[in-house]
Specification:
This protein is α+β, with helices and mostly antiparallel strands and 175 residues long. The protein is 27% helix and 37% strand. An eight-stranded antiparallel sheet has the order 1-2-8-7-6-5-4-3, covered by helices on one side. A hairpin with a 3-residue loop joins strand 4 and strand 5.
Length: 175
C-alpha cells in the first residue's frame, strides 16, 4: 500500500509558475503554501476558483476529464467529480465561501490521500495587489503516516501546477 500511494503521488507531480513551498512537516502532517499573482480583480479570481472544471488538469482527476469536476462556492457544497459508468468522487466539502472577504475553505483529503484517512484543509485567500490579485493558497494535511509525509513535495507539485493553470485561465481564458 505504501509504495502504491507514493507511486501515485509521484506520477502526478507537476511543477508550475507559482511561488510554492512545503512550509512545514511534523510528526503527522504537513503544510503547503503557494502565492500566485494574477492580473485580474479578486472577484474574478474568486469566481474562477468555482469554475475548476474549466482549468484543472484532467490528468489529475479520476475520470480523466476536468469538466467532470464541480466546485459550487457555498458552504456544504460538494467539490465532486462524476465518473463514467455512474460513479462519483467527493474531493472535498466547502466549509467557507465568502466573496466579500476573498476567502474559500474546503475540507479536502485530495487524491490518493483519501486512502490514508487524513484530514486536509485547503484555504484560498485573495487580496488586491499591484492592480491584480495576490492569491495565497494553503493546504494543511493532518493524520498522515511517515511515508505520506515524505510525499509532501509531490503533493505540492500537483497543486502548484493547478494554481499555474488557474492563473492562465483567469488571465487568458485558457488553462
Amino acid at each position: 500500500m505504501r509504495s502504491m500511494v507514493l507511486a501515485a503521488l509521484a506520477a502526478v507531480a507537476f511543477t508550475g509558475a507559482a511561488r510554492a513551498e512545503v512550509v512545514e512537516t511534523g510528526a503527522q502532517g504537513f503544510r503547503l503554501k503557494s502565492v500566485v499573482q494574477i492580473e485580474a480583480p479578486p472577484a474574478r479570481v474568486y469566481q474562477a476558483i468555482g469554475e475548476i472544471g474549466r482549468w484543472w488538469d484532467g490528468a489529475h482527476s479520476y475520470s480523466g476529464k476536468a469538466e467532470n469536476i464541480t466546485l459550487p462556492l457555498q458552504a456544504n457544497a460538494c467539490w465532486c467529480e462524476t465518473i463514467p459508468g455512474g460513479g462519483s468522487v467527493r474531493h472535498g466539502v466547502v466549509v467557507l465561501a465568502w466573496p466579500e472577504q476573498g476567502m474559500i475553505r474546503a475540507d479536502a483529503a485530495l487524491g490518493p490521500l483519501q486512502d490514508e484517512g487524513v484530514n486536509g484543509a485547503l484555504f484560498f485567500r485573495m487580496k488586491p495587489k499591484d492592480g491584480g490579485t495576490e492569491l495565497t493558497i494553503t493546504y494543511n494535511v493532518g493524520g498522515a503516516r511517515d511515508f505520506v509525509l515524505k510525499a509532501a513535495p509531490q503533493v505540492d507539485g500537483v497543486l502548484t501546477g493547478g494554481w499555474a493553470r488557474l492563473k492562465r485561465y483567469v488571465e487568458t481564458g485558457k488553462p
